[in-house]
Structures are given as structure tokens and as C-alpha cells.
Specification:
- The protein is mainly alpha-helical.
- The protein has one domain.
- It is 77% helix and 0% strand.
- It is built from four helices and no strands.
- The protein is elongated.
Amino acid sequence: MVPVSARFIFFGSIIACLAVALGAFGKHALISILSQESLETWRTGVYYQLVHGVGLVLVGVVVDRTPHPQRAIRAGWLLLAGTVIFSGSLYAIALIGIRLLGAVTPVGGFCFISGWLLLAWSVKPVRSQDEP
């Protein structure tokens, strides 16, 4: 069985790799097809995907080193969900032009914020019972 830490490092690496590929695709293939506004939407999706791919790698490293691994694991799933929802909705908006899809983008943003806060909480030191 693959440890959960390795899974997050794997997911994060693949997501970051895809972000680089999607960024290049946007720069070279979509630049002559999409409007400037749609290209900016695409770039935003790529940026957030790349940042949160690296965040997932960080989660994979933290899971085995934190006093609260379950919190870190939940943080990782939130970052993964946020990436799919946030960046995915922006890609769809840029390509298809259905602005209504923008209504789901904040759900991905909420997952990002919650995931980062939960990751911070996962490394909070455990208090000794001897401490006041």
C-alpha cells in the first residue's frame, strides 16, 4: 500500500507538471484563439494550479512529520478539490465562455483557504499536560 504522504507528493507533482503544460498550451496554442480576457482567466487558473500543486507536495512532506497527520491529510484533500474546482472552472470559462461557471469558482477558493488553514493547524504543537 502506498503511504498517503507519497500520494500527495505524486498528485502535487502531476498537477504542477500539468500546470506548466497548460501554461505553455495557453501561451502558444490559445493566444491566437482566445480573447485577452479569456487568456487572463486561463493564466489565473494555471497560476493557482501550479501553486497548489506545490502545496500538495508540501502536504506530502508534512503528513509524516506533524503531530496531527489527519489534519494535514484533510488539508491535502481540500487543496486537491480546490484545484479541480477553482482552476477547472476557470479553464472552462476561458474555453467555453460560460460565465455562469464562475459561480462555482469561489467554492474552489474556499477549499484553498480552508486547506491552508488546516495545514497550519496540523503543525500546531501538541501541548504537554505538564504545561499550564
